Amino acid sequence: ISAGTDIHMSASSHVNIPTRLHIGANADVGVFGPGSGDHGKEQLYIRSDGDADTSGALAALETNSNTDAYHSGLGFLKSGGSKGSETIVADGETLGQISWLGHDGTNYENAAAIKAFVDGTPNDNATDMPGRIEFQTTPNGSDTPATRLTIKNDGKIGIGTTSPQDDFHIESSNGSAIELDRNDSDITSGD
User: Fold this and answer.
1) Exposed/middle/buried for residue 75 (C-beta within 10 Å: 0-12, 13-18, 19+)
2) 36-46: buried (b, 16+ CB within 10 Å) or exposed (e) per residue?
3) Cβ proximity of 45 and 58 under 8 Å
4) Strand 146-151 and strand 131-137: pairing?
5) pTM of the entire structure?
6) CA triplet 54, 55, 60: central angle to 5 degrees?
7) CA distance to 9, 36, 54, 146, per residue, from 161 (Å)
8) What is the pLDDT of residue 95?
9) Quick one: DSSP state of residue 18?
10) What SS3 state is found at 32?
11) How far is residue 81's CA from residue 71's CA, in Å, rounded to a whole number?
């Protein structure tokens, strides 16, 4: 095996057995279930044709420990510069995201996402990294997610706005911004 060569592994030495593990020349890794095809441009791509366990998970993180300090986790790391010469990230920069896409018969289209951003100017060489989380869904007739809920670095929550001005800020241009209903047949006076 030499640099710049793809590696393909199958579960059998027979001809026409689909690749189960692919390690590309560009360090991309693909893990494929039965009947799976090629992967996209991701660095790690895991695919199954419906034979995941009963939890529906294609991947799982498990830690067994009696100490709270040891637990499963998933980290998204982002810097400017390059490996070994990392530089500070900028206000508004995307730090990571989780996306859900559905196939419309032609392509995979965005349905929803959770994104994390730098939310302010971090101090260089200090313990400071202001963050913001946005929850997005895609409206019917579109393939572009819109931000529905924002949690800012100061803890302010915005629904319908990405710039909440108070602890809990709801903004709507479609009539009522909030509706509270109580469905209880046993309501008495004073409730």
Assistant:
1) exposed
2) beebeeeeebe
3) no
4) antiparallel
5) 0.72
6) 125
7) 49, 41, 38, 10
8) 95
9) P
10) strand
11) 30
Span between the terminal Cα atoms of the chain, in Å: 75
Residue 35 pLDDT exceeds 50: no
113 token code pair: 């996402």
Contacts 24+ apart (CB under 8 A), 149-157: 152/119, 153/119, 153/120
Residue that has been written with the tokens 């206000």 in this structure: 91
- Quote the tokens at residue 155: 């803890």
Q: Are 102 and 109 in contact (CB under 8 A)?
A: yes
Mean pLDDT of the chain: 80
β-partners of residue 124 are none
Give the residue from 146, 87, 143, 84 showing the smallest Cα distance to 118.
Answer: 87
Give the CA count within 13 Å in the CB-facing half-sphere of 95: 20
Tokens representing residue 121 in the block: 């100017």
Token pair, residue 181, equals 């209903």
CA 105, 59, 47, 136 torsion-angle sign: positive
Residue 150 CA to residue 44 CA, distance in Å, equals 29
CA 133, 80, 145: angle at the middle one, nearest 5? 35
Higher-confidence position of 98 and 41: 98
Can you state the percent helix, strand and coil of the chain, rounding each to 5? 0, 35, 65
